[in-house]
Amino acid sequence: MSTRPHHLETVVIGDAPSAWAMAGFVIDDDRTTIAGTTIILAGAGGDRGIRAVDAGIDGPIDGMAFGRVPTTPAARQEEHPNRVVDFDHLVAMSPHMDRTTAALTDAGLEHRRTRTFEAGGATRRQAFFWLGDVILELVGDDTAHGDGPATLWGLALSCDDLDAAADALGDALGRVKPAVQPGRRIATMRTRELDISIPIALMSPHPAPDA
């Protein structure tokens, strides 16, 4: 367990539990557990997407829905049929990377690193922060200074066997391909067909240090 102060305890998502069951997650009432993080599926009848994130922070950060979620029993820990075993990273988007990066730092999140890359004729920026053992990946245009809020966007989850996950999920999972991270592979769930309101990527395990 990480000694960093802000752990990703709970994520509340506006989806029906049945949709996540179809995606290969073990559901206990309205929730599922991935490593040390509980995902509460609050139903598809209200706001969709990520409604709240509890990482031990009081109040929103630059418009992102961080805050305290009332303590409730975690879901039982069972092996997910989709082979998900860990929470790799939480993805957020910002129209003003400088402003949101500063807000996250001011909230006490440890800034791990930043990288830039070219995409679609523009320079994009990724800033990475620690939420305990989970990465918060903030993405946006490198030089944009938009007025809108940052938003919590999607999840990347680690599988112990990505090929077995692909076999289990069939058409619910896209093509497995190399990930940006060396030695890893990635595939995207077809969440629209599953009526899941956020993007979800499945990733192969981190390679062994001597691999």
Q: Give helix and strand order, one letter per element, not per position.
A: EHEEEEHEEEEHEEHE
Average pLDDT works out at 93
- Tell me how many strands there are: 12
How many strands, what sense, and barrel or not for the largest sheet?
Answer: 8 strands, mixed
Q: In what range is the share of β-strand residues?
A: 35-45%
What features would you describe in this structure?
This protein is mainly beta and 211 residues long. It has a single domain, classed as Roll (2,3-Dihydroxybiphenyl 1,2-Dioxygenase, domain 1), CATH 3.10.180.10. The chain has 4 helices and 12 strands, in the order E-H-E-E-E-E-H-E-E-E-E-H-E-E-H-E. The chain has an 8-stranded mixed beta sheet with strand order 6-7-8-5-9-12-11-10. The protein has a 4-stranded mixed beta sheet with strand order 2-3-1-4, with no helix packed on it. The protein is globular and about 40 Å long.
